[in-house]
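Entry 14. Ran structure prediction on the chain below.
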Amino acid sequence: MSLVRSADTLALTNLTDQALRVRAVEAAATYDLELLVQMTMAYMLAGSRKGARTSPKTLEAYSLAVRDFVPWAQAQGVQLLRPGRRDGGRYVAQLQTRPSQGRGRTGTLSASTVAQYVAGARALYRALRWAGATEAQPFEDAHVPPDPTPGIVKNPPYMHEIDEVLVQCEPRLAALLLLCAHAGLRISEALNVTVGDLRGSQLAVHGKGGKIRQVPLGKRVRAALAGLTPVRSDGALFDWTYHQAKYQMSLAFRAAGQRHAWRGFHAARKHSGTRLYRATKDFTRVGLFLGHSSVDTTRRYVALEENDVQSEVEDF
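Output, structure tokens:
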């Protein structure tokens, strides 16, 4: 991730309008992949709606997307500054028919992966317009069909697995799992928790876009955190990277006989959303707990029981 905030990337934001335009035109004309990635990152940090608060995860995803689109455009003879009106649709079509390269996966790229690549390519063109290099919008009319399978079905919440895996976790790993599964934190939020964030029975969580929310902690989470000592002088309770935490948790799932159930940390966050909704029947309260800005997002985190309204319609 050093690229997205490198000195070269940030230097682009300080160029004059004319100098920025020249750099962008040259990069597009020569298919200079590294400079086009930097140009996109510079736009995201200085010209997009979220600006410098754009999440590292988004920056990384867009960087990968630009690295996919630009070589395709060059191979297809697409002039980046003067693309054909159908070129955006052509790129979408080849993404939808491209074989998946994921380990153990078959078939074509998932709808979510296609959408991610197209979002990054669109960001590239916003960056080129921001730099004054073109007014082209080749993806304006390109349609990216949504995934017909809801995310809650493709990646449902862990339920009974949580308690089974906790038995196999050492105390710090158990606390991390509880922060995601019982306190509803994103893994990035959980890994950044410090002693100073603990305020009695609540936790100050630093979420997306620099937002801070107060999350109530249940007794199991409080007890797990109370047993930890800081791992750094700043009071951090975890010193794992995301990939290190993912590896440690996958080992715990395997030890619990749940090797094939491991679906990443997001399914643990859905566990908390599902349990809280079943207790409250209130998407708004669940959304506030999870730190969502939209209830529509919250609905994708809750596994509803089949025939949940059977008793309500019984006497219709």
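The chain has two domains: 2-148, 161-299. Will compare against last week's run tomorrow.
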